[in-house]
Amino acid sequence: MEVRLRMVSIFTILLLCSSSFIAGQVDLKNPDYLNTNFIRQYDEVKKNLISNDQFKAVSFESDDGLELGGLLYEDESAECNIIYFGGWFPGRKEGGLPFWSMVKDRKKKCNFLFVDVRGHGDSQGSFLWSTLRYGVNEHKDLRAAIKYMSRVSNNKPTIIIGVCAGAFHAIHALQRKDLSSKYNVVGMIFDSGWPSVMHVARTASLSILKENAFKRIFKLKKISCVKCKDEKKCCSVCKKKLKKSFVYQLSSGFLSIFITAIHTCLVRPMYFLTEMKTNLFDKIYKITIPMLVVHAESDEYVPYDMVQELFKEHKKNVEMYIVKDCKHSCINLKYHDQYKTALNKFIDNVLIN
């Protein structure tokens, strides 16, 4: 019965998410590393990284015997390693492309490893099955990646970039001090991360549904704004007006009730047994390496107050880079130049110290 509940819950969440990840047209001959339509064409991204940026496909094994796939860039003069660990869905390693563009031109080079988490891309494992116990085993993949990079680089300093679920898993992996000290992990980026599977399942699902409802309302409404008509998308002024409309308020209230019911009846029972083991509130204090926490105040998938609560009592060696207006996990795109500056400054500081 428990397994059936979990399967229904996961199918519902995937159904809600799927419409947000359809790739559009893009010029593959001159790809833009910040173009989401290109980033979502994973095979093309992989080909481009291998042919143009000298990456190579690699594999290594997790502690529980799964073969994990990745893309590795190596430079003999590199002063450190960077490991990118991505989110839940779609969660492919190629999604970290904007981060590579931030560090590829550093004067002091970095080795760079993109990792496919189990059940994604080139890695073994069942995505659906792992989601049934989400957060219990995924951190083993990052531990394997850290050991692999330590081995191929002769234990150079390593920095973790964890985005969304990847940030969540990174905390689980790095709470073991022997891992960071033995394998020379000197810092991590906690980008749009969340503290609890149970909490984020509700907020992310509700946000996705509201986004889809808003798009439909926008198409139905007759917009007089010239900017909206020209760009075929809602500008910030019209967006505020539409969100105050009766139709949106009514649909938003209905969706909140609907998601709350699903969360109460399906998600909470599904993750009840693993929640105490996987939530980060009683684990974050174990992280002693420097962290750069990146988040948006307007993130509706992972509300900013979740992150504030997580780091309320853990401020040692924690640097905050917070922006006001941005969608979930998109700061690396919308604020790319500012993020690039903050990231490289953080890298330089942890390497000096």
Reported for the largest beta sheet, the result is: 8 strands, mixed
CATH homologous superfamily designation of the largest domain: Alpha/Beta hydrolase fold, catalytic domain
Number of helices: 15
Order of strands across the widest beta sheet?
Answer: 1-2-4-3-5-6-7-8
Termini separation:
52 Å
> Outline, from the CA principal axes?
globular
- Low-confidence parts, pLDDT < 50 over ≥5 residues? 1-5, 7-16, 18-23
Kindly describe this structure:
Helix 4 packs across helix 15 and helix 6 (139-153) crosses helix 7 (165-174). This protein is globular. The chain has two domains: 1-14 and 201-279, no CATH class; 44-195 and 288-352, Alpha/Beta hydrolase fold, catalytic domain (Rossmann fold, 3-Layer(aba) Sandwich), CATH 3.40.50. The chain is an alpha/beta fold and 353 residues long. It has 15 helices and eight strands. The protein has helices spanning 2-18, 36-39, 42-52, 97-103, 127-132, 139-153, 165-174, 177-182, 197-220, 226-231, 236-243, 246-278, 304-310, 331-334, 336-352, and strands at 56-61, 67-73, 80-85, 110-115, 158-163, 185-191, 291-296, 318-323. Strands 1-2-4-3-5-6-7-8 form an eight-stranded mixed beta sheet, with helices on both faces. The N and C termini lie far apart (52 Å). 50% of the residues lie in helices and 14% in strands.
